[in-house]
Q: What sequence folds into this?
């Protein structure tokens, strides 16, 4: 296998913005339905886990359970927003709707299409985070103004999960098979990234593995520091991890999709 | 594909014919700059398809084999969203969309989602979409497949109209009558190679002759034909005799060979096609 082929830097052009706009237009056609989950989901989780389960938990790391999981809820929705858009969403557009085929018959290139899809996936994360913030703020669970930094950060983190999903879309033999990486990677990540209990209760080796390979761990660390209003220099290390992995996944996913689609 | 060489003149209608798997769609995809070529050279508008894809695609319209309309949008939105990919300013795009909807008789469907259009309407919308950038070259991969006769004739009329306006048209088709009607010149392909190139008339004259006489497959007829050194072919229980003078052959057969059923007809492109590519079924 020629590894270099997957590391070729994609050409970035304004064509990607046109693909992004196409997806945004479709999203806005069903705006009412699409805007609902980011409002409803945090409410459900906060009531069930924060205020229900939380009754039995005095405090975690010196804060109430609801306050502890609030940043996790935002992080998880950042992950899901981009991941589902660029896995199931992109696969449907690519395979069933042939949208990509139609677009590459115009001056746009396949790279424009994939970059546009990735940017749109990241935008979904940004939209989710932005809509959730006021709901959670209503319960007094997050620090303002630090938490406002979550909005731009959601785009960066979203781009990482979009790239991850796009790599899966590039190799999945059919739509059902997308379930495997979800079961084996996304769901464990959802549970073991310091989301609903602190990472440090896990065996040390598992903690290191989580930090090494689970992007959500770093996302939760950053978002939690922001909602707690206690950012520190250690966040730069997490940010660096995210930027590097995001960049690699971005480049590799575009090349993997090119390999799948150029025949 | 190999050993494929062709050139299409500006303003002509050029056809690619061939059985399934002959390489027609691959050829179309190469012209469209979406399938890379491992070797050889292909120029569109005098530009290399490997390096100047954006410029080439800017002047090209494509009707793919499979309708790939955007099911997330209405008829009108499909065209408008597509216009953005060509950087057409919005005001101008809206004017063109209205014009095109009228051109393909879909004004009344403008707010319909594409899923609920009939097959013929979808095909017409794909044609309209291919024209949004006022292309100099229009590529159609089996434009009339699955259409009823009314829709097919409408499509033919539209293509002839476009040709009159100076649009160069390249198409593939399985319908040989369509190719004979529309194409100024065409090629017949098989197994990734071009077998022949020319005008439909020249091909018929060269490979078949102007007429065909058909008779039942019978040993008497065969010996009779051999005696006259006729040019014939046995196809199952039928014999086809290629000739310039069907009257004479028919008379001979009826008088000398004591035959009952003989038909004479003009040769068609289909006869050329079957002669060159054989009658074996393709996968």
A:
């Amino acid at each position: 296998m020629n590894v270099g082929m997957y590391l070729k830097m994609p050409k970035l052009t304004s064509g990607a913005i046109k693909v992004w706009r196409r997806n945004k237009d479709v999203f806005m056609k069903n705006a009412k339905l699409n805007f609902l989950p980011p409002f409803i989901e945090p409410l459900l989780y906060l009531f069930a886990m924060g205020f229900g389960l939380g009754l039995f938990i005095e405090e975690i790391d010196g804060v109430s359970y609801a306050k502890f999981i609030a940043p996790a809820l935002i992080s998880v929705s950042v992950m899901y927003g981009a991941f589902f858009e660029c896995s199931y969403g992109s696969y449907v557009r690519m395979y069933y709707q042939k949208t990509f085929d139609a677009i590459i018959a115009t001056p746009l290139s396949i790279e424009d299409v994939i970059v546009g899809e990735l940017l749109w996936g990241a935008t979904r994360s940004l939209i989710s985070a932005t809509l959730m913030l006021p709901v959670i703020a209503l319960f007094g669970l997050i620090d303002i103004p630090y938490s406002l930094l979550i909005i731009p950060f959601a785009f960066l983190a979203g781009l990482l999960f979009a790239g991850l999903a796009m790599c899966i879309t590039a190799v999945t033999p059919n739509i059902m098979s997308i379930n495997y990486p979800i079961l084996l990677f996304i769901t464990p990540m959802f549970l073991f990234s310091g989301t609903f209990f602190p990472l440090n209760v896990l065996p040390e080796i598992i903690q290191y593995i989580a930090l090494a390979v689970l992007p959500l761990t770093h996302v939760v660390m950053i978002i939690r520091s922001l909602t707690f209003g206690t950012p520190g220099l250690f966040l730069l290390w997490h940010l660096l991890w995210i930027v590097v992995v995001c960049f690699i996944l971005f480049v590799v996913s575009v090349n993997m999709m090119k390999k799948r689609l150029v025949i | 594909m190999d050993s494929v060489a062709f050139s299409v003149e500006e303003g002509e209608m050029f056809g690619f014919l061939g059985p399934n798997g002959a390489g027609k769609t691959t050829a179309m995809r190469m012209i469209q700059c979406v399938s890379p070529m491992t070797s050889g050279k292909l120029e569109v508008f005098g530009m290399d398809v490997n390096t100047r894809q954006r410029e080439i695609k800017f002047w090209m319209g494509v009707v793919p084999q499979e309708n790939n309309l955007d099911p997330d949008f209405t008829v009108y939105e499909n065209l408008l969203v597509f216009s953005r990919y060509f950087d057409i300013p919005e005001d101008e795009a809206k004017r063109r969309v209205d014009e095109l909807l009228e051109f393909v008789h879909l004004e009344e469907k403008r707010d319909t989602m594409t899923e609920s259009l009939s097959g013929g309407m979808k095909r017409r919308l794909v044609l309209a979409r291919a024209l949004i950038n006022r292309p100099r070259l229009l590529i159609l991969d089996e434009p009339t497949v699955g259409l009823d006769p009314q829709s097919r004739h409408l499509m033919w009329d539209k293509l002839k109209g476009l040709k009159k306006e100076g649009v160069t048209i390249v198409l593939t088709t399985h319908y040989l009558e369509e190719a004979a009607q529309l194409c100024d010149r065409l090629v017949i392909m098989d197994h990734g190679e071009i077998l022949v190139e020319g005008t439909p008339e020249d091909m018929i004259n060269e490979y078949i002759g102007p007429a065909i006489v058909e008779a039942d497959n019978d040993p008497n007829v065969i010996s009779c034909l051999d005696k006259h050194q006729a040019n014939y072919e046995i196809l199952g229980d039928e014999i086809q005799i290629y000739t310039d003078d069907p009257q004479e052959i028919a008379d001979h057969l009826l008088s000398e060979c004591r035959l009952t059923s003989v038909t004479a007809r003009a040769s068609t492109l289909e006869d050329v096609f079957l002669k060159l590519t054989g009658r074996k079924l393709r996968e």
Q: What stands out?
A: Chain B has a mean pLDDT of 91.
